[in-house]
Amino acid sequence: MPLRPELYLGDCREELRKIPSDSIDLIVTSPPYADQRQTTYGGVSVDGYVEWFLPISEELLRVLKPTGTFILNIKEKVVEGERSTYVMELILEMRKQGWLWTEEFIWHKKNCVPGKWPNRFRDAWERLLQFNKNKKFHMYQDAVKVPIGNWAKDRLKNLSETDKIRDNAKNGSGFGKNVSNWLGKETVYPTNVIHIATECNNKNHSAAFPRELPEWFIKLFTRENDTVLDPFMGSGTTIDVANRMNRNSIGIEILPSYYEEVERQFASLQQSEVSLNESSSEHESVELTRRYALR
Fold it and tell me: What predicted TM-score, i.e. pTM, was given to this entire model?
């Protein structure tokens, strides 16, 4: 039976204080971007974004385990024909706060919204910034391996002598490869570019995650019974995915309408699980009675 998530209604700057220090294994979230979601979240100005977010990231730093990971989905907006720098400014300030900026994943949105602008092309990607408290953190890379691909069939058929040793690049860069290392492998580690379509059914939310996105990071950075936090829960996608993957989950949402909808979803799910278990128990009881009657 899926674990029951902890849900909090309120401003995450306040609600995060209720969570014990060093208790969260993974934080996956997408806060409102600067000057966006004004009709739902009121919008945070570009100039004030860093100042607004730093008290939140300070609490996230406190609740995250030393071995945990924080994944922040965020993207700069265009202001008067120029990309804003607030995300870069936020990264620098978070480093001063004590965070390690260990990696940056790119979410390639395979079905990005069409559009035409005189000075740029349509956005087809977003940032997924990885922050940690320490250089050594839990990471389960084998959980996200991908098929090696058809290229290996022909490329590995007839290896040259050079393919069987480390062949250093001729430009003196220090990079090299040993092609024979790929022999016998059916899966390989992925790149830091994640190819996932956006959520088409937005579940009454203005910017719902596709389920595959938090699922990928939950596989990579947690194991069963670990705890996943989303301080900007929205429609509850991250919490739902974590719950179905047998992780403990905590969600915080400031808007009552979204919070109540997620509450209803989990109440319905829990009732379905109870009914299923009761039906299964009743079936087992009838089966046992039948077996004893046949003796």
Answer: 0.81
